[in-house]
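2024-03-11 09:14:02 DEBUG pipeline.ingest accepted 1 chain
2024-03-11 09:14:02 DEBUG pipeline.ingest length=146
2024-03-11 09:14:03 DEBUG pipeline.predict start
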Amino acid sequence: MIVHLVFGLVAMSICLAIQACSSVIAVRHFARNANESPGLQPWWAIFVHFSTLMILLMLGNILQVMCWALFYIVLGSFDDFEAAVYFSGVTFTSLGYGDVVLDSPTRLLGPLQAANGLMMFGITTAVFIAAIQQAVAKRHARIEAK
């Protein structure tokens, strides 16, 4: 049991590193391109920038789901990667269908992964909301300057 808990905490730390990297990449891309309009109407350009930000952030979350799936494969909880990714995705999002479950030795990892997913989606949401707030503040400053 302790070994599985330690393994889960290591997995959570790796996910935090992935989340930090994907957040930094997404924010840098957003900051670099936020002032550039690719010849589109302002509302369309904003939509494109936020869509790109969202995709970059979600790719980080998908990578974390896949990392957890690899951990489950290594621990022998699943025989095939598809089932491991499915379980991992359902658990990471705390959807929890219950149609695929962990066996007794590793079942403590499920709640750890769900808690990890909630925290990582919280970070994703915070980064996304911060970008929206920054874009709104810049737009408001431009309107006020006119």
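2024-03-11 09:14:41 DEBUG pipeline.report DSSP finds four helices and no strands in the chain.
2024-03-11 09:14:41 DEBUG pipeline.predict end
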